[in-house]
Amino acid sequence: MSVTLLLSAPGGIYQEAAQALQAELEEAGVRVTQQTVAQREPEREDWVVALGVAALQHALDERNTTPVMALLVPRASYTRLTAGRTRPVTALYLDQPLWRTAALMRLALPGIRRVGAILGPATRQIREDMRQACAAQGLELHAVTIDSAAALFPALADLADEIDVLRLVPDPLVVNRNTLQSLLLQTYHLRRPVVAYSAALVEAGALLGLYATPAQLGREAGRWLQDLGYGSARKLPAPRYPNSLTVGINPSVAHSLGLTLPPAEVLARRVEEVSAP
Amino acid sequence: MRKLVLTGLLGCFPAAASGQAPDPFLSETDYYAEQPVVLSVSKLAQSQALAPAAVTVIDRAMIEASGFRTLPDVLRLVPGFEVAWVRGGLPTVSYQGLTSLYARRMQVMIDGRSVYNPGYGHIQWQLLPVALEDIDRIEVVRGPNAANDGANAVQATIHIFTRHAASEAGASVHLAGGENGIRDAVLRYAGGSGESRWRLTYQEQQNDWYDTRYYTPRDATHDRFLNLRLDQRVDAHDELTLETGYSLGNWENSAVGYTFSPAQTSDLDSWYVQGRWRRVFDADNEWSLQFHHTRSRDIEAFRPRAPLTAPADLDNWFQRDALEWSANHRLAPGLRLNFSAEVRYDAAWSPSLTHTDRVLDGWMTRLSAASEWAFASDWLLHAAAMLEHNYYGGTLVSPRLALNWQPVPGHSLRLGAARAYRTPTFLEQNADFALRMGPLLYDQLLLSPFALKPERMTTEELGYVWQAPARGVNLDVRVFHNRLERIIDFTTPYPVPGEMVHDGADRTYANLFHATQRGAEYQLRWKYDSDGWVALWQSWVMTDSDSPDYAASTPHLNSGLLTARELGQGLDASLGYYRMSAMQWVGAAQPTPAHDRLDARLGKRWKTPRARYELALVVQSALGKQSEYDAARYFDRRAFVSLGVRF
């Protein structure tokens, strides 16, 4: 079997995921080639793994029927990019499922009841799913949707009175270079813990995060490809969320808020045991 | 490792231009881009369970529920703290007594800037340009903290942290008015965007502190200040902060201690500028470089009684300049280190009290190191020391050792010992205050004929912290033993050649007494449901001293209770009760009887599409009149109404 890894750009997270994927496949005797979007030359291949949104876009634009697996692509973007396309494609999503983050909040912070979220144009459609995911864990979702940057902090001020924890969602209007500092400072000022979706946000000052690292995603994609074997012309499996996960805790923020959380590894194991509804 | 991997994404940080419709298309960059560390160690409140000393954190909820208008009053919320208003312009704040109305054994830092007056050694609370609305939190370290904060952090250290300019946006107005001439206005505006933020605050406060029905003359005060904070993020690692402010105070009847001029008034002004460059490498590693400059001037006018010609006034000023570098590093998962180095210049000028027109000044240099070592999973060892050279104190080493043990999650025990020094002030070492008739010396009142040694405090303590966030409980208990040696105070008459009244200097500064204290205190905070909480604290202290004045200077029991509850419909109510047993301030003419005070606040919040409002009614000392310094002055019941608008 021969697999081409198509990277959106050299280095960075693409390289980190590609390395893990390659190691996993090469162990099973699969031939692996790495290319970047800039130097892409289709060759005899059984699979193309597109790493990142740019790589997926590029692969979908090719006149080619080799099956594609998208990696490092969030679910919402995958759905939009692949709509109406004919090339066989599936994905191991980048994001963690909503129900899993809800389960983590319940496990890590048993005292909380009301979860706040600020949604923007890129995330407004997940509101109902998020509400159900929270409800399944006995949590109440208080979500507001904003459509301009100016509405963010008034929305946060209104929301803060009625929530125990703020769950950040990756909406570029909500979390960006202009807003992050104020978001973390204001929520800390109000002593509301923040649950985030990336390691960098936990390091920046969120209390807790649930995410998969690029290497975890690379390894999981490698194992999945081995199970799938030659993909050409067959019906591909549906895209799915990763099983791999990492729980990140910011110990300084936890201590400062007077919170004692179980160790991150323990939480990760407990979250892994929770199954999809 | 992750850092290296992520460098490929630097510069891809998703930036949503404000006002424009962003592209709502998520990519991997939204998840994996490197972010600046916003809440680095130095921006976070200390953890009580892991701290090497007993820490009280006063947050915004407590400040608002208390209904207090001034910073010294807010410190009533700390176990063991005595707060007394000697005059409307002269509040005094101390921890566990052993002090005159000029409490000199407390270090106070605003955003890391030391604000004690090197001339007298006390804090000019009324001149501090910080509005309660600008405060993020107050952390009070109860007990010596010289290993971290240097000389004068003897009985307690108060760290006041103001809000980062990015932690709010827009304008706010707060107005208050009521009995006893209470007239307050606070105007604030927080602006800027993205990486450049600023906040401007103007505050004006007036009141007659003591009731003229019982006490004349008036002690009305009028204080104003303007203050600006700029926060500029330079890149993912660097942040610059600049703060500057100017305050003005006019106080009637500011005379204390000397009765020869009851009509004395004070006009004060003070300005400061402070700059800080903070470089944050990651959540655990950072350093900062800070400078500050403060200059305060006091014009104290009165007419000397004929035939005396001097002192013609009590004008004075002091100045402080400091440059400080400090670094926090985590060397291993369980080992954290902090280093700091500082050079400070203090100067003071007070011709009437020192009988010289010369500016008294001196340099201070210091180096400190502190380590926090989790040598086993439930143990934490703190070891810290400050080495400093002070213009009067000489070379001093202030160490601290503390051991924290967390046998069960949520429960933490602490055993600690610390030493701290208080260095003599410019006045104590250089006093020469006399009444004169032209060139003739009529009566020498104050003199400093001896080289003074720094006072030394040694404390051993046992602490217990219980934190149960799921039950909303936070309990802190401290049992301690203090030994304060070489207390600087006045001694018996001292012969002065040429003095006309021939009684010698009435008061000469010397290292005279020692005192030991044993005591226990606790503070409990219980958030019993999502709408209500109670804070309760008490402090018992037994003081022994070779001076009866010092032995009597600490209240045996000091208690407080603050509770707040949301009543629904935007209404909230709170009650504060503060009680102190009898004591006598060192040097006070009369004892302070046991007294208590009940404050109540009722607030109503509402909002419109354009603004949020809060109206509140506060009644202070609702149980009636009480005396907190001497029995001749009463703080009687008073009410005021406040209105806050944010838009």
What is the element layout, followed by pairings?
The complex is a heterodimer of chains A (277) and B (647).
Chain A: E1 2-7, H1 12-27, E2 31-36, E3 47-51, H2 53-61, E4 68-71, H3 75-82, E5 89-92, H4 98-108, E6 114-119, H5 127-136, E7 140-145, H6 152-160, E8 165-167, H7 180-189, E9 194-196, H8 199-204, E10 208-211, H9 214-228, E11 246-249, H10 251-256, H11 264-273
Parallel strand pairs in A: 1-2, 1-3, 3-4, 4-5, 6-7, 6-8, 8-9, 9-10
Antiparallel strand pairs in A: 10-11
Helix pairs in contact in A: 1-9, 2-3, 4-5, 4-11
Chain B: H1 2-6, H2 29-32, E1 54-59, H3 60-66, H4 71-74, E2 81-87, E3 90-95, E4 106-110, E5 113-114, E6 135-142, H5 146-149, E7 156-162, E8 170-178, E9 182-193, E10 196-208, E11 220-233, E12 238-252, E13 265-282, E14 285-301, E15 316-332, E16 335-349, H6 351-354, E17 360-376, E18 379-390, E19 394-408, E20 411-422, H7 426-430, E21 432-437, E22 440-447, E23 455-468, E24 473-491, E25 507-529, E26 532-545, H8 548-551, E27 557-568, E28 571-580, E29 595-607, E30 612-620, E31 638-646
Parallel strand pairs in B: 4-7, 22-25
Antiparallel strand pairs in B: 1-6, 2-3, 4-5, 6-7, 8-9, 8-31, 9-10, 10-11, 11-12, 12-13, 13-14, 14-15, 15-16, 16-17, 17-18, 18-19, 19-20, 20-23, 21-22, 23-24, 24-25, 25-26, 26-27, 27-28, 28-29, 29-30, 30-31
